[in-house]
């Protein structure tokens, strides 16, 4: 019985954490410390904070992976959720490992906008598209993250001859198409953008650089 107890403890999943980007939410964990723990199978449950019963996540029931997609299960974005995972090996089940509380609206990371750059001889037109959530409108199109938060676009220009860190903010606001005027011909310019959330003072990562030569 003692051996079983040891095995139970040594295969128990570690570091059970929610990761969420634009409300695409996955649960991650690490295997227990025993060397044989890598052969374990995992079982995932979830619930809304305050509910008494745990729900099984059928697609993550007896899996060998260390990640489970809970996007659909956490779609009420104002609710706080918990999840828990346990491992099984050779007929022995570990205890459950509990995640921290996770509230999608407060904790999801916002991704960068999509940026398209069109240039004419002295100006650059920047087209911006907000990141999309996984949730769909009735007609099937995905709902942009700007529906859930008060988000601003921040657009920066990098003059290629200066170093990467020298970004100059040229626009902040909600317009999806902006024009940057009075640029010098023959100079290579790069544009990056990010989403900014004034209320929580959060910024997304920067978009990939879009460079153009006037």
UniProtKB/TrEMBL annotation:
Domain named Fibronectin type-III: residues: 12-107
Molecular function GO labels: cytokine receptor activity
Main location: secreted
A single Gene Ontology CC term: extracellular region
Protein name: Interleukin-22 receptor subunit alpha-2
Keyword set, alphabetical order: Disulfide bond, Receptor, Repeat, Secreted, Signal
Function: Receptor for IL22. Binds to IL22, prevents interaction with the functional IL-22R complex and blocks the activity of IL22 (in vitro). May play an important role as an IL22 antagonist in the regulation of inflammatory responses.
InterPro entries: FN3_dom (IPR003961), FN3_sf (IPR036116), Ig-like_fold (IPR013783), Interferon/interleukin_rcp_dom (IPR015373), Type-II_Cytokine-TF_Rcpt (IPR050650)
Protein family (similarity comment): Belongs to the type II cytokine receptor family.
Source species, domain of life: Eukaryota
Subcellular location: Secreted
Gene3D superfamilies: Immunoglobulins (2.60.40.10)
């Amino acid at each position: 019985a003692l051996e079983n107890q040891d095995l139970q403890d040594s295969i128990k999943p570690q570091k059970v954490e929610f990761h969420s980007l634009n409300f695409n939410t996955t649960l991650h964990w690490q295997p227990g410390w025993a060397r044989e723990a890598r052969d374990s199978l995992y079982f995932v449950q979830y619930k809304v904070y305050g509910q008494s019963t745990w729900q099984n996540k059928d697609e993550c029931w007896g899996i060998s992976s260390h990640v489970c997609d809970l996007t659909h299960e956490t779609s009420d974005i104002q609710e706080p959720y918990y999840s828990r995972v346990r491992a099984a090996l050779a007929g022995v089940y570990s205890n459950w490992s509990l995640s921290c509380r996770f509230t999608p609206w407060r904790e999801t990371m916002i991704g960068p906008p999509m940026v398209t750059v069109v240039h004419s001889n002295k100006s650059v037109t920047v087209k911006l598209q907000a990141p999309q959530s996984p949730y769909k409108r009735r007609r099937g199109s995905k709902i942009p993250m700007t529906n859930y938060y008060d988000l601003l676009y921040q657009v920066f220009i990098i003059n290629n001859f200066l170093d990467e860190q020298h970004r100059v903010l040229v626009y902040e606001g909600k317009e999806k198409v902006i024009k940057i005027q009075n640029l010098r011909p023959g100079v290579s310019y790069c544009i990056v953008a990010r989403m900014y959330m004034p209320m929580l003072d959060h910024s997304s990562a920067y978009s990939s650089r879009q460079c153009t030569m006037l």
